[in-house]
Amino acid sequence: MLPDMSEEKIQSAGNAVDSIDPILPSEIGFDIDGVVADTMEAFIRIAREEFGIDYISKEQITSYWIEECLPIPLDIIKAIINRLLTDPVGIKLEPLPGAREALMRLAAHGSLTFVTARTVKEPIEAWLISLLSGVAHEDIRVIATGQYSAKAGVLDELKLKYFIDDHLETCRDLHKRGIKTFVFDQPWNRGNAPFLRIRSWKALSGIIKMPS
Predict the structure, then answer these.
(1) Which helix (H) or strand (E) holds 77?
(2) DSSP classification of residue 25
(3) How many CB atoms lie within 10 A of CB 128?
(4) Are residues 47 and 140 in the same domain?
């Protein structure tokens, strides 16, 4: 969850996990913000530490469009988003629980692919390289599409069969294109959807088949 600041707005039911066949590590791609990175924890922390805003919580972020659900001035939202986009290492962006461990296990069996709607990949790529210390840089592939609607074309080109994202509209778009899609459960994506809802990296790890 982290949109391009050039967009007009600032963006912000599941089936049983055991109902699908095991997935090979080479078949799946990952969004970053809200899936690997706990971006909204960093947003809330910066709001508190740098702007004195101590009255918001992650559960209040019920829309992908942050300004629609948080009582924060738009200029402050933009300033925080800019920090998250340009300096994820400097602001000490943290991974979601279990993400690093699961990705390290997957990396032992091949390259990892991350497709993000960020417009510039270098800052978040540097963060991933730091997070996944020990994984060869060439095995961490990051593609920045600039907009969520461009992800489907990238995934088709890469021949990835599965993708996990926290943005419902992205998941719906990929689902329509025939890409098997999982939504990573977050307060801003609650609701019925025709694809699997993943609630933790432990659950996700359980459906990815590690080669023997």
Answers:
(1) helix 74-86
(2) G
(3) 26
(4) no
